[in-house]
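In the previous chapter we treated chains in isolation. Here, by contrast, the input contains three separate entities that must be folded as one system, with a combined length of 1280 residues.
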Amino acid sequence: MKPAAFEYHRPDDLPSALALLRAHEDASVLAGGQSLVPMMNYRLAQPDHLVDINRIDELDFIRAESAVIVIGALARHRTIQSSPLIAERLPMVAHAYEWIAHAAVRNRGTLCGNLCHADPASEMPALMQVLEAEMVLARADGTRRVPAVEFFTGTYETARAAGEMLTEVRIPTPPAGSGWGFEEVSMRKGDFAWAAVGCQLRIDNGALVDVRMAAAGVGDCALRLRGIEAALEGEPPSADLFAQAAHDAAEALDPPDTAAVSADYRRDLVRALAPRALTAAVARAE
Amino acid sequence: MSSHLKSNVIPPSRQREKPRAGLTWIGQSIKRVEDPRILTGKGGYIDDVVVAGMAQAAMVSSPHAHARIVSIDTSKAKEVPGVIGVYTGADLATVVDPCPSFASPPVPQHAMAIDKVRHVGEVVAAVVAEDRYIAEDAAALVEVEWEVLPANVDIEASLEATGDAVLHPDDRKSNCALDESFAFGPVEADFAAADRVITRRLRWNRSSAQAIETCGVVAQWDAFKGGYTIHANTNFYSFIPFVIGGSLRVSPGELKMIPVLTGGSFGSKVFIHKIIILTAGLARLAGVPVKYIEDRLEHFTNSDSHGSDRLYDCELAVMEDGSFKSMRFTVLDDYGAYLQFGVGTHGNAMAQVTGPYRIGSFGMRVIAVLTNKCQQGPYRGFGSEVTNWVMERMVDAAAEELGRDPLELREQNMIQPDEFPYMIPTGNIYDSGNFQEVLGQAREMFDLDTWRAKVRAARAEGRCVGVGVATCMERSVYGPTEWWSLNNRETPGFTLTSTPEGISARIDPSGKLFVTLNSCMVGNSPETVVTQILAERLTVDPADVVINYADSQTGFNGVGPQGSRFTAMVAGACVTASIRLEEKLKRFGAHMLQRRPEDVELRGGMVAVKGLKDQEKSFAEIALTSSFFRLSFPDGEEFDSGMETTAVYDHPLSTDPHPEREHLGIFYPIVGHICHMVAVEVDPETGKVEILDYAAVHDNGTIVNPRTLGGQVWGGTANGIGTTLSEQFVYDADGQFTNPNFAEFAMPTAHEMPTNFKLGHVETPSPYTEYGIKGGGEGGRLGAPSALTSAIEDALRDRGVKIAALPVTPPILRGLIRDADAAAVAAE
Amino acid sequence: MDKVAIELTVNGRARQALVAPRVLLSDFIRQQLALPGTHVGCEHGVCGSCNVLVNGVAVRSCLMFAVQLDGAELTTVEGFGGADTLHPIQEAFWEEHGLQCGFCTPGMLAAASELLAQTPDPTEAEIREAIAGNLCRCTGYQYIIEAIRSAARKLREARVETTEPV
């Protein structure tokens, strides 16, 4: 299990990196490497060129731009997890990190790298959809923004085109009074999710509003659960309502069906976890 | 005792050292001798071995479960700069013969496949190159043309396979590798007389040890001497030259096996002869020393160490008063593609198949099934972990059908303390025990009565909380007949009757005690226990004991750490060695003190005159004088120079099997006993199991080092928790191994272990081993699956869930709950 | 591919090396630096045996390329302490029987070291979380947890001693 040979590039600034990506269409970006390098060790990934962005300090940031938290391509999970700004403004993200990998992986891995890897069982792609984050894709001749819900297009597939780099993710701060919930079941703590659900909502005059929910592990990629959102919007919260909405959402899913983890089981998890996440969100909402 | 056992006479005990109180070193938790070098990164594992001019090997492995090799084109691979050679199975066969097998008759196996592959991961070609990166580059360029054959994955379906689906059509017409039946005692009569027969179909699925270090070999061919020098991380290095010499076409004496510190085995590195033969053959072909370290994928798919994979149809004959009369079962075992040890693990299980209970007769039909999976090998428990689970499942089932408390039913049937040595129907004996005391301590430690109240309260709240109890045997110190006693009578194979353990010991002129072991370290504590025992016996400071390891040419009588045998066996060798050294020290020392040998004793590293202070000579003085001043002593060979000895200890208690197999003789008699109690809560919506409380009480006889034994119990229990809740090899219908990696084969992390584990010990010494020591390396895994399964079933009692298969991963358990709920709805 | 020159500090010593870009840090440490204490267990980033400290941070050395270490400070198990100079964490592992086969131990030491640098008095839950990415097949973790708790105590006491006026 040794990687195939590649040409190594270590640009010191973003324009150089983008120029390299333009010059080498099959180049891979090396940020934390916690998903890419295992795939290279198995030779499932054999890029001819590797663009190491770890020396581009300008990509290593977490900052607030009024109501938006902006996280740069080099911000590592560990930094995000322990950031007071994230704890205050995006508590669901901070909380969800308890389920994501282990210390040494979080020390190196980056959020943007995790999103670009787009593992269908990874938690953050689902949370970015709940939070309606925007992905900023830069290329040598410009940038574009892609909403999270459009960014994830399939298993290990995203809207990122050749020559583009995800330089930052822009996450709107939830409106005041919002509540959130996050639930996950995996074999071991830190494993990829068999199913994970995250949600955010508000309560207005006793009714649920702005309900957003997404799930990981139950489709080709992380999914926004629009059916649940529609079923709850404007309704008063109740256990029966949550159970029915979760059941309907589970029925509508077409989750991966593998020898070890059946599609039925993943649907069961959505039935179990969605109401728990919603109940937690209601409790947190003001 | 049943009449069929009458010819199995228990020999008298050869124990020289009785268990006793007041020992200085035995029984102390001294810090391990092995640790400082390991803690500083200087352990010396197989991948640390560097030999001048060494090249690295990488393998080309089968992507198919079952296929004919139509052609192999190595031409592109050979052109890669840095490649020394690329070899196919046919090339390898020019220098090596097929792998050895303990099965009789054997199923032929080549270290590298020749015409056909029979499981994913089987090696078909190898590259030897300057480094592993280049070797893998070249391996990727080897082109193989395949003719894919039908894959056998299901254990029952494989038995019916015909035509191209038969794995070894030249040797066997079907995928049934062997089908043997046994009856010990009046099984038919006991079943006929029983009030009730409890019947269960039970399934134990495949997993393996997956030590964190994979297997590896560094091999050199010496063209001048015509022999090999081989480093390998096998448990079995002293014996292995005799096992593989034939395959390597050299006499065993020309095969020098050098042991290394082994990064965990749990049985899995006992039989690694396939990769030893493979690497040695490559070294001979390439003309350079070759290192081959399995990567994790290869270790999963090709290491010949998969665990038991069994389907039982089991019957327990009981009386209405709850007493057990007889047990019998038919077991299908998915051996994978080959059959390296024949009846193997089923023989091991026969050592304790009736558990701690009085059961008068026992019958078994074992059918070994060949499938397109990597073959089985030893794994902590060696099959006995499965029969423990089967026995305990049957007892729980009996309790339920009889309406009895499961613990009370166990107590009713348990062998009583005054019944030892107790001979079970297969002929093996339990040397000693006090199961009631173990159970009592566990009950107290766990606070079972309080837990039962808590369970009732939780159930009333609608929570799924339950407790489970397992009372199991932990056989240790196997005898040699285990290996072949179940082979068919016509061709029983190599009927060896020795499993010795030996050491050599020398006090050098500086007074240090140098000890050489013939067995390696695999994560056990060989240096520590030998140091403790010899320090005890020779009254020396443990700091003055230096332990080394012999290679296979300089040390021989050692079988190695396996079957929980090493500590008890090496203790015997230490006793013999120290008796001889003591005698010699006294002879020389007494001469120097101008006394008679009977007037002196060993005292604090000195030979001292009994009853007199200051009349003494240190071991250093005596050893120095005996080594360098021969003329200070009388003529005669009893004063030959030096202070050294070699000692071998043979199995303390084994007898031959009955010639007609009415019984198997005594072959695994030093038995421990374990009781595990566990409380769990199940989340019925997700199938997740949380361990709320855990107590384990083990009786391993006299304890040499409580802390290291505790480590074995803890680690074995963690292993058993994984076996029960999360570890399973998952194959798809094409025979693809879907989870051969650490991300998906889920071994417990620190998060999965119970936070309030309670560990207790009872010490019932063996009357047969020195000091009464018993083995204790497997017990955790021999008890945890039974207790946990029972607890989970108890937690879901109100929902009618029955657990008949392991593991119970959350998806599997949720499936059982879903089915039970649906059945309940249908019944209404 | 051409080799790249790198400079780094290894266990306090400045080192220079020429490395092919694809060489994993784990292989570089074991083979080029000839420091065999860093163990390779899975090469896919799960077992944690190959954990080392890069600039004081625990990382999987099988998931980094040696070329990335240019300018970095690397600490392997050999940098903790030697035969007569065991680090307090090594001592605690020895005393509490925190190792059996020892293969996972160097990675455990790295994880423990990072934890105790940040959290001098960790709870049991924090210790479990810190080592949850390090698989051990021998111990069942309990004595490792006890060792880290003991190491924390030793390190705290050492700190108190050094800050006291002489």
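Chain C touches chain A through 31 residues (CB under 8 Å). The CA atoms of residues 88 and 154 of chain C lie 6 Å apart. Compare these points with the single-chain example from earlier in the chapter.
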